[in-house]
Amino acid sequence: MRGRFLPGMAGDMMEGGRFVARILRASALEVRELAFDTTRWRQSLMAALVVPLAITMALALRLDSVWWAGISGFMTVLATGSASLQRGMIRVGATAAGVAVSFVAARWLPYNHVALALFLALTTFLGTVGMVVSPHGTAWLLGSVTVNMVLLGGLDDPSAVPMIAFNRLAEITVGVVASALVTNLLAPRGTMPAPPTAPGWRHLLDHDWPVVVQGIRAAIAVVILLLAWIWLELPSFQQMAVTVALVMAAPGAGGVGLDARHAVTERALHRLLGCLIGGLAGLACLALSVTSFVSWLVLIAVAMWICMHIQTSRRGVGYVGTQAAMVFIVTMAQGPRPPTSLLPGIDRFIGITGALAVLMVLSVALWPSVDERHGHV
Predict the structure, then answer these.
(1) pTM for this predicted structure
(2) Residue 194 DSSP code
(3) Where are the alpha helices (DSSP H) in 106-208?
(4) Hey, where are the domains in the chain?
(5) What is the pLDDT of residues 154-182, one digit of tens each?
(6) Kindly report the CA angle at 60 between 58 and 61, in degrees rounded to 5?
(7) Which candidate among 111, 185, 296, 357 keeps its CA 20 to 30 Å from the CA of 373?
(8) CB distance 105 to 123 below 8 Å
């Protein structure tokens, strides 16, 4: 057993090193092309305008987590106004559904950790599977993430769940409204995109069974993280649970054997490296000691231009730009003025690394054995 495990672990580490080198190389090439690739300037400009606008609107409405409004705005900026509007509507609808479910469940679940663990496992399973098999996969994933975040946000104080739920929906809506305003002014109209083709839910017990297995892995990971949070009093459990859902629902992660593991591993590395890039960029901006509100928004706008350029990458590293944007926004948009602390970004990074550690353990424990990978079952 030991003779097979150690070489396998060494091989996985070498494979991870190759993944990291390829991701960093592709991201560097994207940044080098920033000033020359004019085909993505319009979308980058829209992101640079949407996020500061969303943050400003959230501040004016005195919402709690203004960074969620900024993230929501960034995530709904697409190449055409109609596509952006459709994604925004899906985001608001899925969030509203998740808020409604969590609002009802919060009457009982925070007081029973066993029931809470089972419920979070179920929602994570549905979100992960739905992301792959449903033509409205994004809605399934966002609904699952919203339920998890609202319930876990009220774990210490269940009476705070209604306010958490309201703020969550309001922040998402503000970001979508800001995106709709900008994209419908600057982006070409286009036509409403058709929903993507998807296999549906009918074949989960036959040829789509690997997708079910993938959902089970994600559910197990969330339960393990909840138990670790309760027993060890770990910070940032919300971010851990959301990380599991997003990483396990990576495109292509519903396959079998090494293909599934490669998809999840690459998605996890994209998230980790994007977190590092966004956090370091936030630290550099904090080092400038910016105190002007306008200068603060300008820094955010410049960073969003760069992140959107990477997100629209043709080299397969778009999620690095997405994650970098999210962490940069969390770091910079801490309140109604330029931030003076990196703690929110550090908390997010702790949550991400904790979830990735659990996922790596699950990769070893639950993925196929060497014989299974080569078809010798």
Answers:
(1) 0.80
(2) P
(3) 113-133, 137-153, 161-186
(4) 16-189+209-366
(5) 777 788 888 888 988 999 999 999 999 99
(6) 65
(7) 357
(8) no
